């Protein structure tokens, strides 16, 4: 039995609802899956959700529900969306599924027995926001970016995976498999990373409880990436291994192109054939993010039908590169290519066949040079499309097809069939034109079926077919074969979008009515008695002067009035506030803090500010009518 074509998407975190970024990856996988089915292959298409780890634990805590309850809720969003998008995955694996948990523990044990997983003590820095240990080098980078506050000193017992032992083997494998990671420029980044040296990878945590326990040592939970990557294995039926194509975003390539192959090598398993890293949908030049409030949800765009969104994704995004999203661009593309381009061509052709030939597609007796040229172009563009699509370059495939469709418009303008129809002497030429147009549309319906299953089917039926176009295969399709019968009823393929009207509605719908971002804060600190707390002298102060400390982008030197005296205080708020914004502000000052020197300036106190690990500091502000010197208690 031949091996099915096995294609995967990343598994999505369940700390948020899906946005168009997640939708894009899954659409690409679905288009690939449908394309391979139409190549006559059996296909196994897997997607899923990544449900363990601190991110989910925190998001659930913020909502006051259990992580599993949160996961169930978000998974329902995914299931519903995938159904509305027309996805044909075989399984949506959840990392909380029992078979997956067992698989992860089994493999962990196997690598432990083999000696590739070992227990040791980690001592060093840890990045709270990335949930990862940080090397000296990385720590310096974070410091340079002003993100050092995210680092904590840590000493803990952990299980390590012997990643360092796989550096040479990985490089040798990369050398021998030049198509392993695509596109090439990403592959080069991966190679450079591995050449730079691999350190053993910590793959357990004791600080988290929401995860799969280490077998036999249950205070450790298996690191979420070890858990997550193995989903591709847990969900794989016996005859499927290895994956043929694994789609990932550029941000998670390292996990897939370095850690994942090393785990598989250690387990003695075949590696995936290709890992394809795609770029991101951006808003302007910005990453989409909840905190920026610029996230586009697929529901906003689904009102134009799933075919429209699927087509837009495939047509616009050059796999591998980033692409800016705009509602205007979205509507322009659909109007140009679907309402005008293909839609117009189909309705003109079908109405001419109806009007001039009573719905019967003629078989041409002769082709003149012009007809021949168009007929030949179809024979060329068909395999060109298939070849590009086989290389997962649907952008280029559709581009080639649409430039052929534009050539057909030109062909109609030149041939002027409405004039030909006036004189029976022109019948052979009119037959040739109508047959050429019909065949072009028939091939188009077949080619675009993986991208726009609904629209392709509707075109297919208009052309007189009653079977499912998606159940056909490309191979051996008779491009110049006669029509199988009279054409069907002509339905508009795509309703032109009234851009002006939609723009205002879409923008309103996309406006950030987002839930508040999740909190990145530590647990409540240990209890202190009131006496200890009251030792801290907190006063209302007013900032009288503020200036930046030279050579520091973070520190601001201030003169603060405490009612009974004035103080010099240096605060690390320079990234969040300009000195001008601080003047005359009321603040809360820790007035009895021992003085300390910051960049040569003695600071006598500290301003209270609120923040989480990810946000800027917000100065705590007493009400306007409070007076400098008031005691805060
Ligand atoms: N759970 C991990 C993946 C584990 S796979 C074993 C994860 N999840 S995620 O939900 O954060 O992201 C899933 C995918 O969505 C990633 O491939 C990521 O690149 C992709 N996208 C997230 N935002 C995106 C855009 N704005 N544009 C395109 N894809 C983006 O990472």
Structure description:
By secondary structure, the chain is an alpha+beta fold. The protein folds into three domains: 5-278, Rossmann fold (3-Layer(aba) Sandwich), CATH 3.40.50; 323-471, Orthogonal Bundle (Isoleucyl-tRNA Synthetase, Domain 1), CATH 1.10.730.10; 530-632, OB fold (Dihydrolipoamide Acetyltransferase, E2P) (Beta Barrel), CATH 2.40.50. The chain is 42% helix and 19% strand. It is built from 21 helices and 26 strands. The strands form seven sheets. It has a six-stranded parallel beta sheet, with helices on both faces. Strands 17, 18, 19, 20, 23 and 26 form a six-stranded antiparallel beta sheet that branches. It has a four-stranded antiparallel beta sheet with strand order 5-4-6-8. The chain is elongated, with a radius of gyration of 31 Å. The structure holds 5'-O-[(L-methionyl)-sulphamoyl]adenosine. 5'-O-[(L-methionyl)-sulphamoyl]adenosine (MSP) binds at residues 10-13, 21-22, 24-25, 50, 228-229, 248-249, 251-252, 280-281, 288.
């Amino acid at each position: 039995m031949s091996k099915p074509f096995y294609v995967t998407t990343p598994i999505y975190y369940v700390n948020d609802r899906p946005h168009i970024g997640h939708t894009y990856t899954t659409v690409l996988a679905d288009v690939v899956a449908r394309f391979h089915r139409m190549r006559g292959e059996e296909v196994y298409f897997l997607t899923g959700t990544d449900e363990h780890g601190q991110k989910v634990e925190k998001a659930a805590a913020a909502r006051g529900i259990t992580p599993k309850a949160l996961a169930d809720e978000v998974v329902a969003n995914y299931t519903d969306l995938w159904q509305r998008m027309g996805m044909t995955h075989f399984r949506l694996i959840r990392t909380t599924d029992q078979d997956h948990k067992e698989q992860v523990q089994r493999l962990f044990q196997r690598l432990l027995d083999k000696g590739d997983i070992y227990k040791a003590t980690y001592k060093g820095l840890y990045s709270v926001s990335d949930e990862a240990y940080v090397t000296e080098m990385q720590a310096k980078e974070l410091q340079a970016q002003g993100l050092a506050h995210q680092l904590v000193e840590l000493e803990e017992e952990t299980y390590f995976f012997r990643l360092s032992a796989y550096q040479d083997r990985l490089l040798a494998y990369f050398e021998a498999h030049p198509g392993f990671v695509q596109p090439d420029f990403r592959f080069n980044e991966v190679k450079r990373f591995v050449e730079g040296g691999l350190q053993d990878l910590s793959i357990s945590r004791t600080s988290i409880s929401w995860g799969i326990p280490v077998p036999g040592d249950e205070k450790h939970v298996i690191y979420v990436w070890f858990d997550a990557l193995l989903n591709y294995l847990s969900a794989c039926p016996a005859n499927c291994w290895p994956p043929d194509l694994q789609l990932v975003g550029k941000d998670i390539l390292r996990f897939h192109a370095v850690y994942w192959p090393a785990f598989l090598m250690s387990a003695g398993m075949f590696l995936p054939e290709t890992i394809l890293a795609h770029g991101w949908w951006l808003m302007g030049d910005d990453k989409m993010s909840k905190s920026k409030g610029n996230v586009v949800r697929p529901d906003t765009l689904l009102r134009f039908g799933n075919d429209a969104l699927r087509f837009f994704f495939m047509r616009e995004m050059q796999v591998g590169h980033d692409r800016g999203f705009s509602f205007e661009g979205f509507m322009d593309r659909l109007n140009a290519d679907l309402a005008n381009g293909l839609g117009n061509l189909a309705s003109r052709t079908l109405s001419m066949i109806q009007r001039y030939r009573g719905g019967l597609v003629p078989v041409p007796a002769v082709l003149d040079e012009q007809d021949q040229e168009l007929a030949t172009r179809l024979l060329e563009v068909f395999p060109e499309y298939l070849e590009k699509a086989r290389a997962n370059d649907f952008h280029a495939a559709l581009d080639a097809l649409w430039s052929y469709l534009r050539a057909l418009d030109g062909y109609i303008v030149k041939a002027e069939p409405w004039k030909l129809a006036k004189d029976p002497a022109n019948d052979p030429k009119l037959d040739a034109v109508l047959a050429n147009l019909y065949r072009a549309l028939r091939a188009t319906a077949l080619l675009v079926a993986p991208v726009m299953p609904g629209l392709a089917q509707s075109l297919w039926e208009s052309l007189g077919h009653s079977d499912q176009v998606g159940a056909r295969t490309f191979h051996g399709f008779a491009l110049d074969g006669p029509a199988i019968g009279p054409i069907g009823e002509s339905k508009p393929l795509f309703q032109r979008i009234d851009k002006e009207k939609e723009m205002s509605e879409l923008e309103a719908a996309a406006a950030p009515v987002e839930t508040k971002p999740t909190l990145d804060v530590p647990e409540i600190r240990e209890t202190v008695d009131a006496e200890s707390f009251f030792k801290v002298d907190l006063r209302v102060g007013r900032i009288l002067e503020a200036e930046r400390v030279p050579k520091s982008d973070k520190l601001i030197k201030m003169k603060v009035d405490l009612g009974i005296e004035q103080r010099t205080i240096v605060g690390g708020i320079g990234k969040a506030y300009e000195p001008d914004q601080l003047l005359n502000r009321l603040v809360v000052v820790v007035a009895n803090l021992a003085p300390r020197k910051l960049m040569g300036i003695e600071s006598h106190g500290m301003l209270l500010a609120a923040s989480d690990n990810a946000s800027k500091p917000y100065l705590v502000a007493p009400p306007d009518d409070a007076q400098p010197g008031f005691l805060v208690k």
